[in-house]
Amino acid sequence: MRGIRVFLEKVLHLRVNATKSAVARPWVRKFLGFSFTVHRETRLRIASESVQRLTERIRAQLRSARGRSLTHTIELLNPLLSGWINFFQIAQAKGPLEELDGWLRRRLRCLVWRQWKRPQTRVRKLRALGLDAERAWHSGMNGRGPWWNAGASHLHHALPVTYFTQLGLVSLLRAQQRLQCVR
Predict the structure, then answer these.
(1) Is 32 left (phi over 0), alpha (psi -120 to 50) or beta?
(2) Residue 10 lies in a domain
(3) Which tens digits make up the pLDDT trace of 149-158?
């Protein structure tokens, strides 16, 4: 690093930021939110710090969305998701995008479960969304927390992926695939 720094500063007359510069393997470092895979055929991937920053921004928006309807919350989330995936459209790894999509839908299911509040309301809403009476009653009265219920099969059946697609939620994976086909 010392030799490269001397060359850059003395010969090329460039300033080197010591906090951002390092000599390391490409898959260890991140560049503008991107990183590289370790595989034989190197691929461009989204850096974990970028994914973490997005999840924190989504958490902040969903924290303030407890009194809003689900459609309004999705309308507020869509510009953030669209802008983020437009920037990272050239990434070649789809695993983190699938995980983010699933995590976001689970957060929204959790939000809906909290909005229903009472067990009787939960049973009535689950029945209206297509669950049979016995399963809706067991699910609504189970006494478990919202995060557990958001990942449970009864809420996946009542609020499937297509439900969120119909409400207009942007799927990161589908948006990236669409953008890559256009390029």
Answers:
(1) left
(2) no
(3) 999 999 999 9
Total Cβ atoms within 10 A of residue 172: 23
Mean pLDDT of the chain: 88
| CA separation for the pair 26, 88 (Å, rounded) | 18
68 belongs to a structural domain: yes
Between 31 and 180, the more confident residue is 180
- Reading the block at residue 96, the tokens are 């983190």
Contact yes or no for 19/27 (Cβ under 8 A): no
In angstroms, the CA 116 to CA 127 distance is 13
The count of structural domains within the chain is 1
Domain enclosing residue 165, as ranges = 48-182
- DSSP 3-state of 73: helix
Is 52 a residue whose pLDDT tops 70? yes
Phi, psi of 35 (to 5 degrees): -145, -175
The answer to whether the CB of 37 falls within 8 A of the CB of 93 is yes
Residue 38 lies in a domain: no
Whether residue 77 is contained in a domain is answered as yes
